[in-house]
Amino acid sequence: MSKARSYYESANLSHIPELMKFAPEAAASYFSFERQIYQQSHQLPVKTKELIAIVVAHVTGCPYCIDVHVKKYKELGGTMEEIMEALLVAAVTRSGAILSHGVNALLAYRDAPGKPDCFC
Which pLDDT score is estimated for 69? Predict the structure, then answer.
């Protein structure tokens, strides 16, 4: 039986330069933007930016970003306890947003009898 190939392999990141060739101007703009945020903007320490990136990577579900930003954060002296607390902040905030949006379900259920007025 053959081993199935995973789409996520950290070595896949080495293909980014090849991918960039399909839209070189847009890719250059992206990397310029990234440099501006991480290297030229100094309102937040880089360590804080990396912690934010870790949380966003978890929210978006990008294993590449999780891997890259956790390693950068660790290099900057970040701890796993800090990462876990930040992840829990994201989890509780997302849960709160779901609960808050539940008001829309309540209002739709209570105040909008009949067929929905939508394209679906």
Answer: 97
Tokens (6 digits) for 10: 């950290």
Task: Please spell the DSSP secondary structure of 73-103, one letter per residue.
Answer: HHHTT--HHHHHHHHHHHHHHHHHHHHHHHH
The per-residue pLDDT for 8 is 85
Of the candidates 119, 118, 10, 5, the residue with the CA atom closest to the CA atom of residue 62: 10
- Amino acid at the residue 89: V
Residue 92 is encoded by which pair of tokens? 């509780």
Cα 39 → chain centroid:
19
Q: What is the mean pLDDT of residues 111-117?
A: 71
Identify which of 77, 49, 54 has the alpha carbon closest to the alpha carbon of residue 67: 54
